[in-house]
Design goal:
The chain is an alpha/beta fold. Among the domains are: 128 residues, Glutaredoxin, CATH 3.40.30.10; 79 residues, no CATH class. Helices cover 68% and strands 7% of the residues. It contains 12 helices and 5 strands. Strand 4 and strand 5 form a beta hairpin. It is elongated, with a radius of gyration of 61 Å. It is a single-pass type I membrane protein. One of its GO terms (molecular function) is disulfide oxidoreductase activity. Keywords: Disulfide bond, Electron transport, Endoplasmic reticulum, Membrane, Phosphoprotein, Redox-active center, Signal, Transmembrane, Transmembrane helix, Transport.
Length: 349
């Protein structure tokens, strides 16, 4: 009985002692506030702070496992920011899509170094020691800066930030329709398609109204006169083109005629040369025939001396007779000349 009663009493005393210890220790622990974070959140309203001084920025997303692994290292790096004389910030790409577009962030986590408005991409690991050495040893000087249109402060990146902001708002609205209101996803897509068409039509109407406001139409008589002038100019141009074509045709015809005349003259010249050559040949043949005839006449009738000579020297007489031209040969030559003349006459000039 005594042992059974002592057990519950000891248990009650032990519970009371633990409660007292907890009560005494609770206020001390509550008196110690949590250590504030040295990492400064960056938004679209205060991101211009990085244009002055030296900064290190981290782009992350709450759902990114790699980003969560580097959180403690980033906090430790921020605690030593005063020693390193550097400010440390972070950007939530879900809450600030405009900044992710301005820096053109495509992978997470992403780190950037900024020195007096000049930005560089840090591609090393997000470990405290590597980050500290990057600043102390000034390794960022060997990294090519983001200049020109790639700079986050440029006009191009400002437009990119606007596009990313609009896409982020559309994404939040889509989540509101599908998650909060429970609307099917295809209904949300149809809504955005219709909204895009309506917005495009509205912007077109605005452009038409603006053009009508700035464009002053001409009076009716001036517009008619301008139309008449335009028609007259077109008619004048058509006439000029027609005249140019006619002149071109005339010049072509004249060239063709000149070429034909030249060809005819060349043919006539060739014909005259042929005739002259033929006449020379005829003259030469006629002269040869006349010489042969004159030689034959000069020999005279055969006398006694010739007879005796023929009797004495018959062989020499036969050779002399053979050397005299035959009348049949002369006739053949004349016939060939006549045929050449007739052929030339048939061909014409």
């Amino acid at each position: 009985m005594a042992g059974g009663r002592c057990g519950p009493q000891l248990t009650a005393l032990l519970a009371a002692w633990i409660a007292a210890v907890a009560a005494t220790a609770g206020p001390e622990e509550a008196a110690l506030p949590p250590e504030p974070s040295r990492v400064q959140p960056m938004t679209a309203s205060n991101w211009t702070l990085v244009m002055e001084g030296e900064w290190m920025l981290k782009f992350y997303a709450p759902w990114c496992p790699s980003c969560q692994q580097t959180d403690s290292e980033w906090e430790a790096f921020a605690k030593n920011g005063e020693i390193l004389q550097i400010s440390v910030g972070k950007v939530d790409v879900i809450q600030e899509p405009g900044l992710s577009g301005r820096f053109f962030v495509t992978t997470l986590p992403a780190f950037f170094h900024a020195k007096d408005g000049i930005f560089r991409r840090y591609r090393g690991p997000g470990i405290f020691e590597d980050l500290q050495n990057y600043i102390l040893e000034k390794k960022w000087q060997s990294v090519e800066p983001l200049t020109g249109w790639k700079s986050p402060a440029s006009l191009t990146m400002s437009g990119m930030a606007g596009l990313f902001s609009i896409s982020g708002k559309i994404w939040h609205l889509h989540n509101y329709f599908t998650v909060t209101l429970g609307i099917p996803a295809w209904c949300s897509y149809v809504f955005f398609v219709v909204a895009t068409l309506v917005f495009g039509l509205f912007m077109g109407l605005v452009l038409v109204v603006i053009s009508e406001c700035f464009y002053v139409p001409l009076p009716r008589h001036l517009s008619e006169r301008s139309e008449q002038n335009r028609r007259s100019e077109e008619a004048h141009r058509a006439e000029q083109l027609q005249d140019a074509e006619e002149e071109k045709d005339d010049s072509n015809e004249e060239e063709n005629k000149d070429s034909l005349v030249d060809d005819e003259e060349e043919k006539e010249d060739l014909g005259d040369e042929d005739e002259a050559e033929e006449e020379e040949e005829e003259d030469n043949l006629a002269a040869g025939v006349d010489e042969e005839r004159s030689e034959a006449n000069d020999q005279g009738p055969p006398g006694e001396d010739s007879v005796t000579r023929e009797e004495v020297e018959p062989e020499e007489a036969e050779e002399g007779i053979s050397e005299q031209p035959c009348p049949a040969d002369t006739e053949v030559v004349e016939d060939s000349l006549r045929q050449r003349k007739s052929q030339h006459a048939d061909k014409g000039p």
